[in-house]
Amino acid sequence: MIRRVILFAIAFFVWCLLTWVPDIQHIIVGIFAALLVAILTGDLFIKRPHVLKHPLRYWYFFAHYLPVFLWQVIKANLDVAYRVLHPALPINPGIVKVKTTLKSDTALTFLANSITLTPGTLTVDIDPEKSVLYIHWIDVKSKDTEIATKIIVERFEKILKKIFD
Amino acid sequence: MSSTIGIIFISVGLAFDVLGCLGLVRLPDVYNRLQAATKCVTLGTCSILLGTFLIVGCTAAGMKAFLCIIFLMLTSPVAAHAIARGAHRAGVKLWDRSVVDKYKADKEGEI
Q1: Enclosing domain of residue B92
Q2: pLDDT tens track for B34-61
Q3: Residues 92-111 of B with CB under 8 A from A
Q4: Is B9 on the interface with A (CB under 8 A)?
Q5: What is the distance in angstroms between the Cα of B1 and the nearest Cα belonging to chain A?
Q6: A and B: number of Cβ contacts within 8 A
Q7: Which residue in A18, B55, B104, B107 has the most C-beta neighbors within 10 A?
Q8: DSSP secondary structure code for residue B38 in this structure
Q9: What per-residue confidence (pLDDT) applies to B52?
Q10: Coil, strand, or helix at residue A143?
Q11: Three-state secondary-structure class, residue A134
Q12: Is the pLDDT of residue B108 over 70?
């Protein structure tokens, strides 16, 4: 039940932003649309709604995760720009395997997304049972699982563990 | 003032989008091309949308641009992940000068 209420609130908020500036007609239609979404897809939404209650998690998300993430995104772009513009095309690609200690689906999704948007790495597949991620790395520095884990995953894993687990 | 900053953001975004397209042409295989496509095009398009948001302010168009940034950040890596996984499962080969393919070694005979 609580999942559906949260999903309703989020859907209604997004609806209000989409139909900015709000007026009474849009709000009435929005309530019904958000209600329909909440009833139909409430089961697919987050599995552990109690996680949303802790203010400390929001603090870690906005103050620790977002700055690191945005900085990595900018670095990733400059990195790709350098590789593309270099006449000799300095790439050394391959798919490596890394391990993770994160368990929940949301945390794994965020980890995979963060890895995809950080310099030179792209998540190809996740195996949640073995806690393994397969990463396409544009410039392979090490074929060893442990060292690759240290370079790629650890930076985000520490923060995401505090937010989602 | 804010429209000047907005135009700067749009120019930077366009530059990164062009670089991303250049990467699509120059890089050798599906996976390397996806790298260029996701990274440059995500930040490039996000900058263009942010520039639009700064120029038009909190109007109907500005709010939609702002929402688009959030959805783009969430969905573009997922799309890249799906394409990469699908390509690998369908048997698309890595570039012949790739150094290692642990995924192929682990998934041998599973498909």
Answers
A1: 2-107
A2: 888 888 888 899 999 999 999 998 888 8
A3: 94-95, 97-104, 106
A4: no
A5: 24
A6: 132
A7: B55
A8: H
A9: 93
A10: coil
A11: strand
A12: no
pLDDT score recorded for residue B36: 86
Q: Do B16 and A77 touch (CB under 8 A)?
A: yes
Q: How many domains does chain B have?
A: 1
Alpha carbon B86 to its chain centroid, in Å, reads 17
Task: Provide the β-strand partners of residue A133.
Answer: A98, A126
The first and second tokens of residue A52, run together, are: 């949303």
- What is the 3-class SS of A80-128, one letter each residue? HHHHHHCCCCCCECEEEEEECCCCCHHHHHHHHHHHHCCCCEEEEEEEC
User: Which residue in this structure is represented by tokens 């798919």?
Assistant: A95
> What is the distance in angstroms between the Cα of B72 and the nearest Cα belonging to chain A?
12
- Yes or no, beta carbons of A93 and B99 under 8 Å apart: yes
What mean pLDDT is predicted for residues A73-96?
A: 87
- Residue-wise pLDDT for A108-132, tens only, equals 888 888 888 888 888 888 888 888 8
Average pLDDT of the segment spanning B23-27: 87
Q: Are A138 and A94 in contact (CB under 8 A)?
A: no
| ipTM computed for the complex | 0.83
> Among A46-50, B14-18, B32-36, which is the least confidently predicted range?
A46-50
CA distance B45 to chain A (A): 12
Instruction: Tell me the backbone φ, ψ of residue A127, rounded to 5 degrees.
Output: -120, 95
Residue B110: pLDDT over 60: no
Which of the residues B12, B17, B25, B35 would you substitute to probe the A interface, choosing the one with the greatest number of A C-beta atoms within 10 Å? B35
